[in-house]
Design a protein that fits this description.
heterodimer, A: two-stranded antiparallel ribbon, 12 strands, B: alpha/beta, Rossmann fold, Dihydrodipicolinate Reductase, domain 2, six-stranded parallel beta sheet, six-stranded mixed beta sheet, 11 helices, about 40% helix
C-alpha cells in the first residue's frame, strides 16, 4: 500500500528548515510505531562534494531533523547519523569534510560508519536472481530509522532518491560490484531494510545542474517518495526500472500514493530535467568511442578513464 | 635508447608509464609500486621487471639510465637521493619535496651527481603557456603589470570513471606537505616565475578550509616580482566538483598595451577539439605516420611533452628547462605564503 507524500516549500534559513520539517511531518500525520529511544538518520554522503552541489545531504536539514526528534521524543533520545563507505568514498572523511563532525559536536549526536558495524550476510531473491548483502546489524535495532536522501538524477538509474539511499546502507564498501544489477540490488536491499520515515532533502536538487529547489518531501514509504520524486524530476515513474521491479516484487504499491501540501508542479517547473547529454547512453557512447579510438590509434588513455584499475 | 624505470604507479605514474611507451628511443625496463594492481598493469604492457619495493628497482636494475618518480610527496626526498646515488637521471613529479630544507638538500645532491634532473612542471608545456610567454617576451602587450593565474578543481578528490578511494596520504598534512597551495598552487607559482623570469615574494596570502581538513583547500596569494614590480594573483582551489574532461584553469597577462588570456588560446569546446584531434591521429595512423599522443586533451598533452623534453635532454646531452632550483624557488615562495598567512591577515585587519 502506497502512502501520502508531504511536500513543503522551504527557504534556506535554519529556523525555517526546522519549521518546514515539522509542518511536513504533520502533513503526513507521522507517528512512530512505538516508543522512540534511539534514532538512526541515514544521510547521503556519496562523495566529498559539498551539499550545494546537490550531491550530498545538507547538514542543515539533519540539524532540523535532530531538533524535531528531540522536540517530539525527548532530549534523551539517542541519535546517530549513519552512512557506509562507498567504493571511492570513506565515511570518516565525508563526515569531516561535509560538516557532519561539526554538527555532531554542536548537537551532541553520534556519527556512525555502518561499514564498521557488526554485519550479517543476508540473501534475497529479486527478479529471479539471488543477491547477497552485508547488513549492518545496529541499524535493525533502532526505534526510528530515518532515511534522508537527496533528489537527483543519475546516469545508471535515471533517478536516485529514497530507495537508492537505502542501498547506501550496505556495509561492504565496494558497492560497485552490484552495478551490473543495480536496479535489482536497490530493490533487494529495500526488502531487508525498511526506513520508518523518509525525509528528502530537496533544498538543492541535482538535475543537469544543481538548483535551489527549496523542497522538503516526507513519506513513510520510500517507494511512494520515489514515485513522486521521479515525476518532479521529469520522468515517467512507470519507466524507472527499479520502481517497476519494486512493484513486481510487492515492495511498492501505487494504490494510496498521493501528495499533500505544495503542488508538485511548483517544483517540477523549475527542476533542470535530464536530457540525452546527461544520460547513461550518451556517457556510454562517449566512453565506447574513446576506447575504440585509443585501441585503433593506440593513443594514451588517461588513468582517470581506465576501466581495469579496480582494486 | 634510454632505459627507464617507473617508480610509483598511482594516477601520475601510470600516465607517465603510458606516455613512455609511446616515445621513440625510450624503453621501460622496470617498474615499482606497492600495489599489485599497478604492477599487473605494468606487466600487461610487457614490463618484465616489476618490484613491490622501489629500493629493489634501484638496486637491481643495473641497465637503467633514468627513473621517473611519481611517489607520494613525502617519499620524494629519499627516492631522489637514492636514484641519484645509483647514478640515474631523474624525473620527479612536483613538488620536488615537501619542505624548503629538503629542496635545498636535493639541489646539492643534483649538483654533486651531475645527472639530468627535471621536475614535472607540466603547465609550462601547455601550448597556450608557450604562446603567451612568446607574445609577452616580444613586447606585444607592452610592459607586463599583473599576471592572474587560477586553477580550481577537485585536485586529489577528482572522481574517475571507475571509482577508487583517494590515497590516505593526501589526508595527512605531514605526508602531503600541504594543501592545495602545494598541489595546484605550486603550478601557478611556477608559472608566475616562468612568465617573469625573476625571483618573487609573497605580499599577501589567504587560505580557506571549506572541507575542515588540516590543510587548506583554497589559497589566494598576491605575489610581487623582485625586480620589475609585476604583481601576480594566484587563485587555487580543491573545492570545485570537476568531472573529466572539464578543466577550470586560466592565465591572463595584463600589460600596458594589452592583455592575453589563455581562454583565447585553448580550445573553446574541449569535446570538439578532442574529436578533431582524434580524427587527425586516425589519419596519421592510416597513412603510417606517428600519432601525437594525448593531443585530444590540450592539458594532458602537456604531460607527454614535459616527459619527452626530459628524454630529449638525456639523448642530446642538454639541460632540462625545469631545474632543481626551479623546484626550490617555487617551494620557497609557498613556504613564505604559509609562514606569512597569519601576519598578512593581521596586517589587512589593521589597515
Amino acid at each position: 500500500m502506497g502512502d501520502v507524500v508531504g511536500l513543503v516549500r522551504v527557504r534556506s534559513s535554519e529556523d525555517e528548515i526546522k519549521n518546514s520539517l515539522g509542518k511536513a511531518l504533520d502533513l503526513i500525520g507521522f507517528k512512530p510505531k512505538g516508543p522512540v529511544k534511539s534514532v538512526d538518520i541515514k544521510v547521503n554522503l556519496c562523495y566529498y562534494w559539498h551539499a550545494s552541489t546537490g550531491y550530498t545531504t545538507d547538514p542543515r536539514v539533519v540539524d532540523g531533523i535532530i531538533d524535531c526528534v528531540r522536540e517530539r521524543y525527548g532530549m534523551g533520545t539517542r541519535i546517530r547519523i549513519v552512512e557506509a563507505d562507498g567504493t571511492a568514498m570513506r565515511t570518516k572523511h565525508s563526515f569531516l569534510m561535509l560538516g557532519y563532525e561539526k554538527l555532531a559536536k554542536e548537537k551532541s549526536v553520534e556519527l556512525f560508519n555502518l561499514s564498521q558495524d557488526e554485519t550479517s550476510q543476508e540473501k534475497v531473491c529479486v527478479n529471479g536472481r539471488e543477491i547477497a548483502f552485508q547488513i549492518p546489524q545496529s541499524l535493525l535495532k533502532s526505534d526510528l530509522f530515518i532515511n534522508v536522501p537527496k533528489l537527483k538524477i543519475m546516469r545508471d538509474t535515471k533517478i536516485t532518491c529514497a530507495l537508492k539511499n537505502v542501498y547506501g546502507c550496505i556495509a561492504s564498501p565496494r558497492k560497485i560490484v552490484y552495478h551490473p544489477i543495480l536496479n535489482e540490488a536497490i530493490v533487494g536491499i529495500n526488502k531487508i531494510l525498511h526506513p520508518d520515515l523518509t525525509i528528502v532533502d530537496g533544498l538543492v536538487a541535482l538535475g543537469r545542474f544543481p538548483i535551489q529547489l527549496g523542497l522538503i518531501m516526507v513519506s513513510r514509504d520510500p517507494f511512494s517518495a520515489d514515485w513522486i520524486a521521479s515525476q518532479i524530476m521529469g520522468f515517467n515513474p512507470s519507466k524507472i526500472k527499479f520502481l517497476k521491479i519494486a512493484m513486481k516484487e510487492k515492495l511498492g504499491d501505487l494504490e494510496g500514493v498521493k501528495t499533500s501540501g505544495e503542488n508538485m508542479i511548483t517544483f517540477k517547473r523549475i527542476f533542470p530535467k535530464g536530457n540525452f547529454f546527461s544520460s547513461k547512453r550518451w556517457w556510454d557512447i562517449q566512453l565506447g568511442l574513446f576506447r575504440l579510438y585509443s585501441k585503433v590509434v593506440n593513443d594514451v588513455v588517461p588513468p582517470m578513464l581506465e576501466k581495469d584499475m579496480k582494486s | 635508447m634510454v632505459n627507464v624505470g617507473i617508480i610509483g604507479l598511482g594516477h601520475m605514474g601510470r600516465l607517465h608509464m603510458m606516455n613512455c611507451l609511446h616515445m621513440e628511443g625510450v624503453k621501460i625496463t622496470a617498474a615499482a609500486d606497492q600495489s599489485k594492481i599497478g604492477l599487473r598493469k605494468a606487466k600487461s604492457f610487457g614490463i618484465k621487471n616489476v618490484y613491490e619495493d622501489y629500493h629493489d628497482l634501484l638496486n637491481n636494475s643495473l641497465n637503467l639510465d633514468a627513473v621517473v618518480i611519481s611517489l607520494p610527496n613525502f617519499l620524494h626526498l629519499e627516492s631522489i637521493q637514492l636514484a641519484l646515488e645509483a647514478g640515474f637521471d631523474v624525473f620527479v613529479e612536483k613538488p620536488m619535496a615537501n619542505t624548503l630544507d629538503e629542496c635545498r638538500k636535493i639541489v646539492k645532491w643534483v649538483e654533486k651527481s651531475g645527472r639530468k634532473f627535471m621536475i614535472g612542471h607540466c603547465m609550462r608545456f601547455i601550448d597556450a603557456t608557450e604562446k603567451m610567454k612568446a607574445i609577452a617576451d616580444l613586447g606585444q602587450i607592452g610592459d607586463l603589470q599583473v599576471v592572474t593565474l587560477e586553477q580550481i578543481l577537485n585536485g586529489p578528490f577528482a572522481h574517475g570513471a571507475v571509482p577508487t578511494p583517494v590515497p590516505e596520504w593526501w589526508f595527512d598534512p605531514k605526508k602531503a606537505g600541504g594543501g592545495v597551495l602545494l598541489d595546484l598552487g605550486y603550478h601557478l607559482v611556477d608559472l608566475f616565475r616562468f612568465f617573469l623570469g625573476e625571483d618573487s615574494h609573497v605580499l599577501f596570502s589567504c587560505f580557506d578550509y571549506k572541507f575542515n581538513l588540516p590543510m587548506e583547500d583554497g589559497a589566494i596569494l598576491l605575489l610581487r616580482s623582485s625586480e620589475s614590480d609585476v604583481k601576480g594573483i594566484i587563485n587555487a582551489g580543491w573545492y570545485q566538483k570537476s568531472v573529466f574532461p572539464e578543466y577550470n584553469f586560466r592565465m591572463i597577462l595584463h600589460g600596458n598595451a594589452g592583455y592575453i588570456s589563455s581562454d583565447d588560446l585553448v580550445p573553446r569546446n574541449i569535446y570538439l577539439h578532442a574529436v578533431e584531434e582524434g580524427m587527425k591521429n586516425l589519419l596519421r595512423k592510416v597513412v603510417g605516420k606517428r600519432i601525437k599522443p594525448l593531443s585530444y586533451s590540450y592539458y594532458y598533452e602537456a604531460y607527454y611533452k614535459e616527459l619527452q623534453h626530459f628524454f630529449d635532454c638525456i639523448m642530446n646531452d642538454s639541460n632540462p628547462s625545469v631545474s632543481a632550483t626551479d623546484g626550490l624557488k617555487t617551494v620557497e615562495i609557498i613556504e613564505e605564503a604559509y609562514r606569512n598567512h597569519g601576519k598578512s591577515q593581521f596586517a589587512l585587519k589593521e589597515a
